[in-house]
């Protein structure tokens, strides 16, 4: 029987960390200043997870559409990701965080991919919090890449077309090792999902908060998680009694 998540709080929280650019612009600073401030928030939220029973945290760091930004912003973000991994790796390891990355690595710089691979390997035995970082991630791109791999297995005779269904297809997604998110939070007041976890969030609860990501504190995170507990998740069924 499915466990009653409404009473236990969300096991998997996914966050669309939005609003870094506006946060910087409001201060008359370049957008990258906001991205650096946003990166500093991540640690606080990751560390708050065990206190609330959140075992899985998935964060959207860079979308397949974010390449449309200026070359300077994209290069600055890629450098920030590299620096962040280098700087945080030891603490993540010590704090029991298992880090994984989702998204298409093909378009990423080799140095970044190497750091991502190393961090995944280094933290593979951790189990306190499972942090998944989406870089060059797009839900449509993920489903397309999964379908390509699935089609390949069908062509090779490893998968019977009659067995393609909503249980076999997600095994080909980048998130095959994760449960579906119970709660998706988006900061900065935009009420859209911008290509994040399209398949996985079919029955997720959504929370859109006005706070810009660099201002999103541990306390606000706790408040949003508290609100989740009051929701009546029905998954298409009718509540008994
Ligand atoms: C989110 O902040 C971070 C990334 C998309 C990389 P934005 O950079 O989108 O900030 P706004 O939405 O322009 O304020
Ligand atoms: C979504 O934010 C992607 C990330 C937070 C990494 P965007 O700022 O790119 O989304 P749109 O353009 O407002 O839809
Ligand atoms: Mg944005």
Secondary-structure topology with pairs:
Elements: H1 5-8, E1 12-16, H2 20-25, H3 31-48, E2 56-63, H4 71-94, E3 97-102, H5 110-122, E4 129-137, H6 139-155, E5 183-186, E6 205-208, H7 218-228
Parallel strand pairs: 1-2, 1-5, 2-4, 3-4, 5-6
Helix pairs in contact: 3-4, 4-5
Write down the Rg: 18 Å
**Helix content range of the residues, please?**
25-40%
Total strands: the figure is 6
What is the second-level CATH architecture?
A: 3-Layer(aba) Sandwich
Query: Spatial order of the strands in the main sheet?
Result: 3-4-2-1-5-6
Oligomeric organization of the protein chains: single chain
How much strand content do the residues show?
5-15%
Number of domains: 1
Unreliable segments (pLDDT under 50, ≥5 consecutive)? 1-6
End-to-end C-alpha gap:
18 Å
* Main sheet specs: 6 strands, parallel
Total of DSSP H or I helical runs spanning 4+ residues: 7
The CATH H-level superfamily is Decaprenyl diphosphate synthase-like
How would you describe this structure to a colleague?
This protein has seven helices and six strands. It is of the alpha/beta class and 241 residues long. The chain has a single domain, classed as Undecaprenyl pyrophosphate synthetase (3-Layer(aba) Sandwich), CATH 3.40.1180. A six-stranded parallel β-sheet has the order 3-4-2-1-5-6, with helices on both faces. Strand 3, helix 5 and strand 4 form a beta-alpha-beta unit. Helix 3 packs parallel to helix 4 and helix 4 packs parallel to helix 5. The radius of gyration is 18 Å and the shape is globular. The N terminus is likely disordered.
